[in-house]
Structure formats: structure tokens, C-alpha cells
Amino acid sequence: MNKGVYIALSSIALAQGLKIPIHYWKKKEFRPDLFFQTGGMPSSHSAGVASLTTYIALNRGLPTIDFALSLVYGLIVMYDAQGIRRQTGELTLKVNDLDDLLDKVNHEKPVHFEEKAPDKLKEMLGHKPEEVVGGALLGVLTGTLGYLMDRKR
């Protein structure tokens, strides 16, 4: 693999790892499982594409096709992370609330209906805009550090 891939993957892993202490600081709840989940602060999607784009910009230059491709791809990924995926997460919250509402309705006036209990849908899919920006800033930092470390050799 090339250096850009290593930097992007390292940035993604760092962002995922940072979710645990940030969540603990906000909620006073230790959740190591957040390392393997989507959503939350910072966005690992944004960190990955921003670090790669930064590394390419510093290594190859801004007028290159490499940088242009990485920038456009990165912007699409970040837009998707906070746009469509976020809206899907919001919709999932509403669907999960419907189950609670149906339970309340059934307690008022019992209706015979048998259904397999579905698993709750995953609610943390996308990112808030500040999570995307946080991931992008982390990515720029790791991309710059990766470039500087590569230059020292």
C-alpha cells in the first residue's frame, strides 16, 4: 500500500478511537463499542478523506488531477455523511419510537396481534455538521503530520 492509504486508514482509526473518550466526557458513560460504530464525533469518514486530500495536496500539489479527484470525492463523502445518512438516522429514531407508541396504544385497548419482535434499527448512522467538521479538521492534521513525517525520511 502507498503512504496515502496508510495515512487515511490511520486517520479513520484515530477518529474511531477518539469517539470513546469524547463520548465518555459528554455522557459519563464508557462505551468501547463505539470504536466499531458509525456516527458520532469526530466523523471518521471526514477524517479519512480529509487526511488523504491534505496529503495529496502537500505531496503532489494543488493543480494535480490527484488532488482534484480526492477533493471532489471527499466533499461528496462528507456531504453524504451529514446529509443523507443523517436523515436516515433521524427517520430511524421515529420508526423506533413508533414501536413504543404501539405498546402504549395496545395497553389502552388490547388488540390481538402476534408479531415477531424486530430488532431495533440502528439510530446512529450519520453525522451532525460539527462532527463532519471535527473529522475534517482531524484529517487535515493527520494528513499534514503524515506528510511531514514522510519528508523527514
TrEMBL record:
The keyword Transcription does not apply. Pfam families: DUF212. Keywords: Membrane, Transmembrane, Transmembrane helix. InterPro entries: DUF212 (IPR003832). CDD domains: PAP2_like. The chain crosses the membrane at residues 132-149. It comes from the Bacteria. This is Divergent PAP2 family protein. It comes from Robertmurraya beringensis. The lineage of its organism: Bacteria, Bacillati, Bacillota, Bacilli, Bacillales.
